[in-house]
């Protein structure tokens, strides 16, 4: 079931919320929790009921192991064995569904074997709830888990606003909220804020992201088919995909936060204007924040982090990002995307070691953001492409410049020809100028307009978010009235966004992160 489907918006969500508060307002908190667990399982099973056993079985096994790890009788080597069993079991479950086809195909390509197996369908959200529960087991092993209620644990894993595509929530953030009585009491303010944030996210998804996909998909499909592309064609495709993914993930993150707030729950921040990042380190503090947190706390730091010298830190960074790439998808293009970001991070850390002086000038910030954005865009080519051949076809397109006699460009033209560029593309047209304008317009939007967290900052939309840690953006600095308030003006704006979004629901499309 998709957040942007009419059935979810007009049937499932209202029914789930109304029944939840009818029960909760009468003080039956455990029954309300049970209802939310059942609603979440229905939400998950709506895709394919046959795979309900995967998440239910995972919950039963991990909860049992967590209780065993937390028991005072489980000590020493036995505790380590229990943790190892839990982590290995989770990895095997994820590996079977997500990576068996990939590895068998890779082995078959080497010619060492020709084993044919049926295609294995990837259960929804398995990457998310597996990592979520591995973190729970590790913390139980450390003695940091204090919550053992089975019903709360079920809701922690299955809570539908975060179930399908994150955030990867932490038990310390969620379980205490499930125990608060005020969570189950109808709060009109939470309803108002939740609906507003949800509609902002819906607008980003169905009006912006889905329309950008119309520009991106044909270009990448043509590249996979081996078609010859020219500079402005691939530029349009890459730019469109860069911002499609941005608004798709931003929209989903907003909708998840908004839906959770309808139920009195604050989800952790997972998306915080990553294209405002001034370096790759900053990018990963803003993009898929909860995944970055998991990779840092449960992979990078246990590997040694930065505590064992520079060379070891570089190895740890690369290993962590390779796993991060593989987590996103079972394909060598995802592995290469992870390796690229690992390389970026190593260079970034090295540069910070050499250049410690910070230039707090607008032009320095602009250059840093542009360089970072182009590095990210380059990596997105491999993230989006279905194969290396498709990615290389996109890159070749960038060398196919508009038709201009190279002699007219003098030394620059000769240099470009020497470097492998060609001037065989169509002459520059009005549509090509639109590509340039589209890039600047979309960049201006993500740079200068306050994001959802900033707009709603006064009402603490996400768990642990503080607007004080954010640099003010242009419109935010000009006028504090741009903050959301429950007034007529904002009601009109939200209504316009909602109406525009609902009118665009005729063709429902999946969120890009659903496939991971």
TrEMBL record:
A Pfam family per the record: MBOAT
Origin species: Candidatus Endoriftia persephonae
Keywords from the UniProt entry: Acyltransferase, Alginate biosynthesis, Cell inner membrane, Cell membrane, Membrane, Transferase, Transmembrane, Transmembrane helix
Enzyme Commission no: 2.3.1.-
Protein name: Probable alginate O-acetylase
Source domain of life: Bacteria
Pathway: Glycan biosynthesis; alginate biosynthesis
Membrane-related topology note: Multi-pass membrane protein
Keyword Transport listed: no
Family named by the database record: Belongs to the membrane-bound acyltransferase family.
GO cellular component, one term: plasma membrane
Transmembrane region(s): 6-24, 53-74, 81-100, 120-138, 150-169, 189-207, 317-342, 362-383, 433-450, 490-514
GO molecular function: acyltransferase activity
Subcellular locations according to the entry: Cell inner membrane; Cell membrane
InterPro entries: Ac/AlaTfrase_AlgI/DltB, AlgI, MB_O-acyltransferase, MBOAT_fam
EC supergroup of this enzyme: transferase
One GO biological process term: alginic acid biosynthetic process
């Amino acid at each position: 079931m998709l957040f942007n489907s009419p059935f979810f918006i007009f049937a499932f969500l209202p029914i789930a919320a109304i029944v939840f508060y009818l029960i909760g307002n009468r003080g039956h908190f455990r029954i309300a929790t049970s209802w939310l667990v059942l609603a979440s399982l229905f939400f998950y099973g709506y895709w394919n009921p046959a795979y309900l056993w995967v998440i239910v079985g995972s919950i039963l096994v991990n909860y049992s192991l967590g209780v065993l790890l937390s028991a005072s009788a489980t000590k020493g080597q036995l505790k380590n064995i229990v943790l190892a069993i839990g982590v290995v079991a989770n990895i095997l479950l994820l590996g079977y569904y997500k990576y068996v086809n990939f590895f068998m195909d890779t082995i078959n390509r080497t010619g060492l074997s020709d084993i044919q197996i049926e295609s294995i369908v990837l259960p929804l959200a398995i990457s998310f709830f597996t990592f979520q529960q591995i973190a729970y087991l590790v913390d139980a092993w450390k003695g940091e888990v204090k919550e053992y209620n089975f019903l709360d644990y079920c809701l922690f894993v299955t809570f539908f606003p975060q179930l399908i595509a994150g955030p990867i929530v932490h038990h310390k953030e969620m379980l205490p909220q499930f125990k608060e009585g005020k969570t189950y009491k109808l709060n009109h303010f939470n309803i108002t804020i939740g609906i507003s944030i949800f509609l902002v996210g819906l607008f980003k998804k169905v009006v912006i992201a889905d329309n950008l996909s119309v520009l991106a998909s044909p270009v990448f499909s043509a590249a996979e088919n081996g078609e010859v592309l020219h500079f402005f064609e691939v530029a349009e495709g890459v730019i469109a995909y860069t911002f499609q993914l941005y608004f798709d993930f931003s929209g989903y993150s907003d909708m998840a936060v908004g839906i959770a707030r309808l139920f009195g729950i604050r989800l952790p921040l997972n998306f915080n204007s990553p294209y405002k990042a001034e370096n790759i380190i900053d990018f990963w503090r803003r993009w898929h924040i909860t995944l970055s947190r998991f990779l840092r706390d449960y992979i990078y730091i246990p590997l040694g982090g930065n505590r064992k010298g520079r060379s070891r830190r570089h190895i740890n960074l690369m290993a962590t990002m390779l796993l991060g790439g593989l987590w996103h998808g079972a394909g060598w293009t995802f592995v290469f995307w992870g390796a690229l970001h690992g390389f970026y991070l190593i260079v970034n850390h090295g540069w910070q070691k050499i250049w410690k002086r910070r230039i707090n000038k607008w032009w320095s910030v602009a250059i840093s953001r542009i360089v970072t954005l182009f590095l990210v865009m380059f990596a997105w080519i491999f993230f989006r492409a279905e194969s290396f051949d498709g990615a290389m076809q996109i890159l070749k397109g960038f060398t196919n410049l508009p038709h201009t006699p190279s002699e007219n460009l003098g030394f620059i033209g000769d240099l470009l020809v020497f470097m492998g560029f060609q001037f065989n593309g169509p002459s520059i047209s009005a549509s090509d100028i639109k590509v340039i304008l589209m890039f600047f317009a979309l960049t201006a939007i993500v740079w200068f307009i306050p994001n959802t967290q900033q707009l709603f900052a006064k009402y603490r939309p996400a768990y642990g978010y503080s607007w004080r840690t954010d640099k003010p953006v242009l419109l935010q600095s000009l006028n504090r009235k741009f903050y959301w308030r429950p007034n007529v003006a904002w009601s009109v704006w939200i209504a316009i966004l909602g109406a525009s979004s609902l009118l665009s629901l005729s063709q429902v499309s999946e969120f890009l992160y659903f496939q991971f």
